[in-house]
Amino acid sequence: MRVIISAGGTGGHIYPALAIINKIKETEPDSEFLYIGTHNRMEKDIIPKYNIPFETIEIYGFNRKNILKNIKTIKYFNLAIKKCKKLIKEFNPDVVVGVGGYVTGPVIYAAKKLGYKTFIHEQNSIPGKANIFLSKYADKIGISFKSTIKEFPEYKTIYTGNPCSEDAIKKEIIPKEKFKLNQNKKLVLIVMGSLGSSRMTDILIKTINLFNNKEYEILFVTGKDSYENIKNVKIPNNVKIVPYIENMTGIMKNTDLIVSRAGASTMSEIIALNIPSILIPSPYVPNNHQYKNAMDLVNKNAAFIIEEKDLKKDTLVRKIDQIINDEKIIKEIKQNLELLAVKDSGTRIYNVLKELSEQNEKN
């Protein structure tokens, strides 16, 4: 299979795209790929490391505050469409895939105008503006939450789940000993994204001593940008602090309770790995989509939520104590997560792409 894939801006788009590539490679090892990303976002550093052919386009998101800046945005959008058409004609893919971020706009639009089969995937419960725009140009649309089906044309929307979930199941477990944790104690993993959250780090600095003498242990992954603020803080013996973990799902498999943001990929891993969670949605994302992601689980009694504005003094510690020491709560949450799990998401997406590529051959 020959596939052009595009996703950009955040790991929440990029890693599902990589999961789709991995699933296609696993099934069809001779497949060829071209990844189209932005010239100045995360994907330009991440994708080449995987030896995936990579092309960039210069494009910017629409500015909600300064309308005049959108004149430049529209100019670069049109230039990007022109470049994408050239790249698509040269590569001649079987299918073109968009996995989120404004970079996918000109890629999918150009592909559709050239007559190629197109697929987009939405990770969040509330679609981003790019995917809403592209829904009319996509032949098929994959969604991660069942509730999202009302946001797109139903006849071409498929509940696939998030491909990161299938990837997570396959990852090797990381032993607790690697982080000098006790194998016989319960583990609470606190993680606020790859870059971290300065606000959450400040809150934890002020309350970290409240974890002293607890029967469980804490592994706090600060994120690369926040580690400097906490590395010299005196912490209890049962708390370990690291800036980043390369294979986060590996330690998640050894976790009894996770405290995290409510990004779509993290949530898909929480569901797939059946981990009780306290979700603290970032209030700084478009459309407050992390809160809506979190509530999709909370309403099914499959997770707990604390909004950042409600984190005062010992709020988080009390919530952790309440959950981790109550086997009845843990069991109920795990049962409800099991009902939500889509453990073959990558396979479902591959099957859709294969069907689209075969339609191309017939045409």
How are the elements arranged and paired?
Blueprint: E1 2-6, H1 11-27, E2 32-38, H2 43-46, E3 54-57, H3 69-91, E4 95-98, H4 104-113, E5 118-122, H5 129-134, E6 140-143, E7 157-159, H6 163-170, E8 187-191, H7 198-207, E9 217-221, E10 239-242, H8 248-252, E11 257-260, H9 264-273, E12 277-279, H10 289-298, E13 304-305, H11 315-324, H12 327-340, H13 345-362
Parallel strand pairs: 1-2, 1-4, 2-3, 4-5, 5-6, 6-7, 8-9, 8-11, 9-10, 11-12, 12-13
Quick structural overview:
40% of the residues lie in helices and 15% in strands. The protein has 363 residues and is an alpha/beta fold.
How would you describe this protein?
The protein is α/β, with parallel strands linked by helices and 363 residues long. The chain has two domains: 2-162 and 343-362, Glycogen Phosphorylase B (Rossmann fold, 3-Layer(aba) Sandwich), CATH 3.40.50; 169-340, Rossmann fold, CATH 3.40.50. It has 13 helices and 13 strands. It has helices at 11-27, 43-46, 69-91, 104-113, 129-134, 163-170, 198-207, 248-252, 264-273, 289-298, 315-324, 327-340, 345-362; strands at 2-6, 32-38, 54-57, 95-98, 118-122, 140-143, 157-159, 187-191, 217-221, 239-242, 257-260, 277-279, 304-305. The strands form two sheets. A seven-stranded parallel sheet has the order 3-2-1-4-5-6-7, with helices on both faces. Strand 8, helix 7 and strand 9 (217-221) form a beta-alpha-beta unit. Helix 1 (11-27) crosses helix 6 (163-170), helix 1 (11-27) crosses helix 13 and helix 3 (69-91) crosses helix 4. It is globular and about 65 Å long. 43% of the residues are buried. The model has no long low-confidence stretch (mean pLDDT 90).
